[in-house]
Design goal:
The chain is an alpha/beta fold. It has helices at 25-38, 55-64, 84-96, 108-111, 116-128, 146-152, 173-176, 183-186, 231-234, 236-244, 247-254, 256-266, 284-292, 295-320, 322-326, and strands spanning 43-46, 71-76, 99-105, 132-139, 162-167, 206-207, 212-214, 229-230. Helix 1 (25-38) crosses helix 2, helix 11 crosses helix 12 and helix 12 (256-266) packs across helix 14 (295-320). Bound molecules: iron/sulfur cluster (2 copies). One iron/sulfur cluster binds at residues 197-198, 215-216, 218, 220, 224, 249, 252, 284-285, 288-289.
Length: 327
């Protein structure tokens, strides 16, 4: 996130209050070089705010990084995509610098301030250019979804374009305005056994406009205690080591929250009494930040993860020992 700038004013925006900070082109360029050198990052995503408020800076950053051949994506409300010529020109420039994916928001909240024709224009042009296009709608009622909303607006999109329906969660401005809801309201399955941290196949550390790094790209970051450090103060390698070297994140991605509870139990650090009422939480991230925001639960988790990590390493060393290699 270069900045939280955005001209749209959704009442469920998760970046609220928006930061007044801004990353410089030089900082982004330096961290992208370090990311490449670390060998851990294959893809960059620009979000915000709306990253198209930082269009010129992003072009400068990606132009400077062109030798690194990074694929990247952007997420936008399409507030700026009113003219076909301008939209085509901008998207061609971005694609020439490695853009492979565009995410576009489309729902009653965004369309209070952005003409829905902009969404269609940007989606169609991006599709024509061969980009991966995802249109996402965020609703506050489980009986509503993006497909129906598009139909109601006489809107048809190309078959390559992916549609995603989400629900408003009470983070950021939505928390202040009491918009959004929990698992019970949305009729979602509040089952510990089905709760995993995003996708286990990748990590998505997020860099905020003040340099703070979160381990993930979650709308819950507005309320999250999981700041892993600050790139302006702590250095890129040090902060990323805290993200990638943290067993808690590995466990909740691979084993899920049921796995976390079981592992803590196994090492004598039970966190069962700290689990919230599952119907009352908003989503997996709410469960995560509730546990990690409780100092006692966090200490138990960290103790269990250290013991678990040592056992895993012992297993690996045992498997690699000359005796086991002979068998
Ligand atoms: S949700 Fe997106 S488009 Fe809406 S105000 Fe926030 S950053 Fe802007
Ligand atoms: S579960 Fe925790 S670490 Fe994973 S995305 Fe949500 S807040 Fe981030």
């Amino acid at each position: 996130m270069l900045s939280h700038r955005c001209p749209v004013n959704c009442d469920f925006c998760c970046v609220y209050p928006p930061s007044v900070d801004r990353l410089s082109v030089g900082e982004c360029a330096q961290w992208i070089r370090q990311a490449k050198k670390s060998g851990r990052f294959k893809y960059i995503e620009f979000t915000g705010g709306d990253p198209f408020c930082e269009y010129d800076s992003i072009v400068e950053v990606m132009r400077g990084a062109s030798a690194l051949e990074y694929a990247y994506g952007m997420t936008t409300s399409a507030y700026w995509a009113g003219s076909r010529e301008e939209t085509l020109a901008k998207m061609k420039t971005l694609k020439g610098l490695g853009l492979v994916r565009i995410g576009i928001s489309c729902d009653p909240g965004h369309q209070a301030n952005v003409p829905i024709s902009n969404v269609r224009m940007l989606a169609d042009i991006s599709d024509e250019l061969g980009l991966e296009v995802t249109v996402s709608g965020t609703f506050d009622d489980p009986s509503k979804n993006l497909e129906t909303y598009l139909k109601e607006n006489g809107f048809a999109l190309g078959q390559n374009i992916k549609l995603k329906t989400r629900y408003i969660l009470p983070y950021g401005k939505a928390e202040k305005k009491c918009v959004g809801g929990n698992m019970r309201k949305y009729g979602l399955m509040a089952d510990l056994g089905n709760m995993y941290c995003q996708d286990s196949s990748y990590y998505a550390p997020s860099i905020y406009p003040n340099g703070d790094v979160y381990p993930c790209c979650s709308v819950a970051n507005a309320a999250s205690p999981l700041v892993m450090g600050n790139l302006r103060k702590d250095g890129f390698d040090e902060v990323m080591l805290r993200v990638f070297g943290n067993f808690f994140f590995r466990v909740i991605k691979r084993e899920g929250f049921q796995g976390l509870v079981d592992i803590c139990e196994k090492y004598g650090c039970s966190i069962r009494s700290y689990l919230p009422d599952m119907d009352e939480i908003c989503d997996t991230c709410d469960l995560c930040i509730t546990l990690m925001g409780n100092l006692e639960a966090r200490e138990l988790i960290e103790r269990a993860m250290s013991a678990y990590g040592i056992d895993l390493l012992d297993d690996i060393f045992d498997a690699l020992s000359p005796d086991s290699l002979k068998t």
